[in-house]
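Lecture 7 notes: from sequence to structure.
We start with the chain below.
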Amino acid sequence: MVQNCGIDPGDSVSPGSRGYEEEEEALFLAHGSRLLLLLLLLLRVTRALSRLLLRNVTCICKAPSLQRGLMEPSNDVALDIIITNVVSVFRTRCHLNLRTIGLEGNNVIYRPEVGKVLMKLRKPRITASIWSSGKIICTGATSEDEAKLGARRLARCLQKIGFKVRFSDFKIVNVLAVCSMPFQIRLIEFTKNNRPIASYEPEIHPAATYRIKNLKSTVQVFSTGSITVTGPNVQSVASAVEQIYPLLFECQKQLA
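Predicted structure tokens for the same chain:
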């Protein structure tokens, strides 16, 4: 006796339809993998853009009018200040055995002749100089937040080695940034107009030096329009660019 299982003899699945279903499944998997790769690519691009935005500081500068000598709102110029290096320092409040760090730490270089250890981190990309007294100097960050994050991760690495590290006395000590002016500059005229603050010795260095005492910042001005600014923090660097821009605007080279 044959029982009816709910399948009619005419409803049998042909080999051709099975192959079509398998092909659809393969196409679905292929499109799904491509979509996943596309999402990963978009995530990487978003992270790269966020890092770039952290490095850039937009500065709105006012250009003086050459006819009236006044500051006109219509002459506002937005300049992108790119931070290339942030130097920070902190203390661990404990003695550090440099030999132990050199043997058990990762990505370290032990230099006993100078009494310090160099440790490098990948995320964020910073290099730390470690002394046995507990003082640590970090360089290579591109923002103040990134410098603090790298310092905390470095302290955590030392804790994992076995030291009783307490993260303290963190501060930003130096910021290096670059900026490009939309014009070329006559350095000799710029130096004459701003003595004794500005100095220019082409036999020693191709850039003119402009020092701002109240901001504790130094600006290196090149004839191409590029400037290099060093200061104690990002705010002082931005203020230095705002202060020097009108002086550079008056000494720009006229296009032939």
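Points to note: DSSP finds five helices and eleven strands in the chain. Residues 1-17, 63-74 have pLDDT under 50 and may be disordered.
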